[in-house]
Amino acid sequence: MNRREFLFVSGAALLLAGTGIGQAAARTKSVPLQNRQHRRLGNLEISAIGLGCLPMVGYYGGKYDKQKMIALIRQAYDLGVTFFDTAEVYGPHTSEKWVGEALKPVRHQVKIATKFGFGVEEGAPTALNSEPKHIRRAVEGSLKRLQTDYIDLLYQHRVDPKVPMEDVAGTIQKLIKEGKVLHWGLSEASAKSIRRAHAVCPLAAVQSEYSLIWRESENKIFATLEELGIGLVPYCPLGRALLTGIINENSRFAKGDRRATLPMFTPEALPNNMQIVRLVEKWAKRKNITSAQFALAWLLAQRDWIVPIPGTTNPAHLADFLKAANIHLSADELNEFEKDYAQIHLVGHRADPFTESQIDK
Fold first, then answer.
1. Are residues 5 and 128 in the same domain?
2. Do 192 and 112 share a structural domain?
3. Of 279, 277, 242, 291, nearest in space to 262 by CA
4. 113 with 218, same domain?
5. Backbone angle region of 180, left / alpha / beta, with phi > 0 → left and psi within -120 to 50 → alpha
6. Which residue range is the domain that position 320 belongs to?
7. What pLDDT is stored for residue 7 in this prediction?
8. CA distances from 326 to 38, 45, 136, 244 (A)
9. Which of 112, 149, 255, 310 has the fewest CB atoms lying closer than 10 Å?
10. 152/25 same-domain check
11. Are residues 182 and 246 in the same domain?
């Protein structure tokens, strides 16, 4: 560690003294800043693995204690995570509030991503809305809840077919000039929409579902992202926990658990889809790692501009999957895995019909 880094770390420790984050950070000597794995989304530098903050509000069932979830977010920071993903619709509003409170003491050491695009401000949280006036209202609300005066990465949550992409990009461009937004991106966007948006205001990232149970992005947008220098942020990188091995063919999901509505997780589909669970387990044992670590390491190995954002409510799971950033899969291993993967056939779609209707094609 050089003198500049020493002064930075020392100053940060003093700044955080007296807070829970400061006390925890002082104990985290095993993760010095210069040894953390980082990647870039466009010009945005962040940790190689981020934290998705949607499950904390009960997306997969359950009700979680605010202080425990804030502590979990702080733990992620202590373990080297500098990229946190939320959205106004998560809760709605709850996730942004918790993220804002948790990260306020270290605001300038982290990057926060949030999203607009649903009619949350108008009381219609399932309706698409990217009208310029709505975008501004949504951003002002997010800034307040996140307890900050700028958003590091702002996504359009879903492409709104009623609003020209050029109008959306132009509105974001103005917000960037005002300093309220630093970088922007799209979520579940087609290559065509990505190009239209990028032509007006360059994109840093696109967020899409991408994992070993859903690889559509490879054929749909990879070439465009590579050409334009845009990063990919896979959400649900652990296949909604299927790839962790905690789900089996007899698993059933209660009302309120998102998976209860998804074709891939029905009682009819699960027995067949255990093929991917067994394959991941096989390779995890071969590498002497956990299934979750293998699934994330595989994603990281696909491109150096990919930054997955697994979500969790469990501190032990958080510590486990962050270790994936230091796992290497060789070209030979990846090729061998692809041969194994080609032998399996997954059934059931990743989304329900209504959700699929709002995904840009």
1. no
2. yes
3. 242
4. yes
5. alpha
6. 36-357
7. 32
8. 11, 17, 40, 18
9. 255
10. no
11. yes
Please tell me what DSSP assigns to residue 289: S
CATH code: domain of residue 182? 3.20.20.100
270 DSSP assignment: H
Percent of the chain at pLDDT > 90 equals 89
DSSP assignment, residue 207? Answer: E
CA nearest 59: which of 254, 204, 210, 287? 254
Mean pLDDT of 181-204: 98
Pair 3, 64 in one domain: no
**Does the structure show a pLDDT above 50 at 6?**
no
Question: For 40-93, where are the alpha helices, taking DSSP H only?
Answer: 66-78
Same domain, 294 and 158: yes
Q: Which residues are catalytic?
A: 90
Query: Residue 256, Cα to own-chain centre: how many angstroms?
Result: 21
> Domain total for the chain?
2
The half-sphere exposure of 281 on its side-chain side, counting CA atoms within 13 A, is 11
**Which CA distances in Å does 236 have to 7, 282, 301, 307?**
38, 21, 17, 12
pLDDT tens-place string over residues 150-169:
999 999 999 999 999 999 99
| pLDDT beyond 80 at 289 | yes
pLDDT at 15: 33
Q: Please indicate, yes or no, whether residues 2 and 115 belong to a single structural domain of this protein.
A: no
Q: How confident is the model at residue 36 (pLDDT cuts 50, 70, 90)?
A: low
Residue reference for tokens 């007899």: 250
For 170, list phi and psi in degrees, rounded to 5: -65, -40
